[in-house]
Design a protein that fits this description.
The protein has 344 residues and is an alpha/beta fold. 40% of the residues lie in helices and 15% in strands. It is elongated.
Amino acid sequence: MGRVRMRDVAEHAGVSVRTVSNVVSGYTHVSPEMRARVQHSLDALGYKMDYLARGLRSGRTGFVALAVPYLAEPYFAELAQAVIRAAARRGITVLVESTEGDSETERRILAGGLTNVADGVLFSALTVPAADVAATPPDFPLVMLGEHDVGDRFPRVGIDNVAAARTAVEHLLEQGCRRIVALGRNGSENGRQRAEGYRQALSAAGVRRVNWLVAPVKDWNRAQGHEAVRQLLEGSGPLPDAIFAFNDALAVGALHALNASGVRVPDDVALASIDNVPESAYTHPPLTSVAPDLDVIAERALTLLDEQTGRQPAGESAGPVVARRESTPFRLVVRASSQRQRTD
């Protein structure tokens, strides 16, 4: 038998070619019974989607772009993998772009720099001001990932950073810690929100926050975490009894500095952070961290992008873009870096 066509599948299933097209394109307005019936025929005949032909007919490329600040950072690498997995289930290919946190690169992307090769963009921005976006708002399908504010015109998906930070700090407080350093302030929106969660947890516990308990950094990476904690340990102030790092990369650097200085973790200084990248389970000691559900983030982001790219049943048009903010689940993974032996 030659190449199986949609017409062949339609005849085998006893349905129209349009129904087969809706099923293989992943459109939602098909009953479960009809979807199962068509899928049985697709499997029985060994139908393979011709993505090039579909793109030529529909005017869509079958690609989406994912732009993140740093692919070398484990969180963004894990996020990219989650998006690729979710896109593959939709028959979509992901093109990944690293901006290196450069404002001009982010402006280029928001000006449509990736839309010549992709139907829409998932974008984790870091530095571009919201005012720049408001001046020349993008006119292509776009979903923002994370908390960097580029205005309220576009859907955004990510965890509640304030709540995630508050959860981590509350855990440290429960371990009896009171002099808790916030490691990671850098002027970003993510940094502002995680600092707010830190402040809320301390305030609710009646712990007075003083200036030396905030350790600013330029970037959220291992080197900056190591240097900030090294300087903290060499200072004249009292030793903190805990560090809340704004991400795992900072925490790994902090842990290296603590170990190198002979500071016992968690007995002398407990440590917790956010991201729960795979590396966090294999540090010494393993790192307590807030775990975002990256698979849920990827699925929701792609669904919101679908709503903008018009992946609707044949004959229907896409509805208006709803610029909503979706908070996705997270959980605290408690490991040895924060588990103290309580004496009270």
